[in-house]
């Protein structure tokens, strides 16, 4: 992992585009979209996932994070263009949908790059989508090549317990992506005692079955590497007693999701 010095990207007051508030930038991302990617981590998230490894991205608002301009991010990308040949730019978080104007401007500029079209990917929980004002996301979604959509739990009550939020906006965002035909990879963190039952995974499969634009499924085994961050920040960690997920069970649970999808699509 290579993080860039954010001072070098400080917001450019002369930018033609809305500035972003960002947490950090990873210049050699290999897990958030295809190929090697520049990954921009936005500042601010309204969710409070019990297993979140980045609680330092939660704070939102004018004073949180570091301002960054579209121009500076693209310059950083272009300075290593050959390196990103089969990759592109991913915007992650925190929650990038909190800043649709910035992300929309960045993605549009990436597609229009004079050095060649740059592949764009949005890594999101979908929580900040507003189904009452979908037009606010037109620019962003109109220039988005791929979405990594994180579904935390298929059961509404457990979803709220695990994240502090209803899943309604997340599901509405999934519906919006399906309506637009934007390719989506579903991500699901598998946490012992929370999301590791065959029943829950089958239910997840049924939940996402109507979305015909789903092109991939990533089952991410929960690990405990984020615990030290909570200790450093002096924050309580809700899953302190939960062990890391046994990776050997992931294929079985993945099959359960696919089985649920297939059953729902066949009307069973
Ligand atoms: S949505 Fe992501 S950044 Fe926000 S609390 Fe959950 S895991 Fe953390």
From TrEMBL:
What the record notes about the co-factor is:
Binds 1 [4Fe-4S] cluster. The cluster is coordinated with 3 cysteines and an exchangeable S-adenosyl-L-methionine.
Domain Radical SAM core stretches:
31-262
Pfam families per the record? Radical_SAM
**The UniProt record lists the keyword Mitochondrion:** no
Q: Which reaction does it catalyse?
A: glycyl-[formate C-acetyltransferase] + reduced [flavodoxin] + S-adenosyl-L-methionine = glycin-2-yl radical-[formate C-acetyltransferase] + semiquinone [flavodoxin] + 5'-deoxyadenosine + L-methionine + H(+)
Q: Which GO terms describe its molecular function?
A: 4 iron, 4 sulfur cluster binding; [formate-C-acetyltransferase]-activating enzyme activity; lyase activity; metal ion binding
Q: Name one GO cellular component term.
A: cytoplasm
Q: Which cofactor does it need?
A: [4Fe-4S] cluster
Give the record's keywords alphabetically: 4Fe-4S, Cytoplasm, Iron, Iron-sulfur, Lyase, Metal-binding, Oxidoreductase, Pyruvate, S-adenosyl-L-methionine
Q: Does the keyword Manganese apply?
A: no
Which compartments does it reside in? Cytoplasm
Q: What is the predominant subcellular site recorded for this chain?
A: cytoplasm
Q: What class of enzyme is it?
A: oxidoreductase
> What are the EC numbers?
1.97.1.4
Physiological role: Activation of pyruvate formate-lyase under anaerobic conditions by generation of an organic free radical, using S-adenosylmethionine and reduced flavodoxin as cosubstrates to produce 5'-deoxy-adenosine.
Similarity field: Belongs to the organic radical-activating enzymes family.
Protein's name in the database: Pyruvate formate-lyase-activating enzyme
- Please tell me the species this chain comes from: [Collinsella] massiliensis
């Amino acid at each position: 992992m290579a993080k860039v010095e954010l001072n070098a990207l400080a917001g450019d007051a002369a930018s033609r585009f809305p500035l972003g508030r960002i947490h950090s930038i990873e210049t050699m991302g290999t897990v958030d979209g295809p190929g090697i990617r520049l990954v921009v981590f936005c500042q601010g998230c309204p969710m409070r996932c019990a297993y979140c490894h980045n609680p330092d991205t939660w704070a939102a608002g004018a004073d949180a994070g570091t301002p960054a301009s579209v121009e500076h991010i693209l310059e950083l990308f272009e300075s290593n263009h050959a390196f990103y040949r089969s990759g592109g730019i991913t915007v992650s978080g925190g929650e990038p949908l909190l800043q649709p104007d910035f992300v929309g401007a960045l993605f549009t500029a990436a597609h229009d790059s004079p050095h060649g079209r740059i592949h764009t990917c949005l890594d999101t929980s979908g929580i900040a989508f507003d189904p009452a004002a979908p037009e606010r996301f037109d620019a962003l979604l109109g220039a988005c090549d791929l979405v990594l959509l994180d579904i935390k739990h298929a059961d509404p009550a457990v979803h709220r317990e695990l994240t502090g939020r209803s899943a309604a906006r997340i599901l509405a965002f999934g519906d919006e992506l399906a309506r637009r035909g934007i390719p989506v990879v579903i991500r699901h963190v598998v946490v012992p005692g929370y999301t590791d039952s065959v029943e829950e995974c089958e239910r997840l499969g049924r939940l996402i079955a109507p979305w015909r634009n789903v092109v991939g499924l990533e089952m991410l085994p929960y690990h405990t590497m984020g615990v030290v961050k909570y200790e450093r920040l002096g924050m309580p960690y809700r899953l302190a007693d939960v062990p890391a997920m046994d990776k050997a069970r992931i294929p079985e649970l993945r099959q359960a999701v696919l089985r649920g999808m297939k059953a729902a699509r066949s009307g069973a």
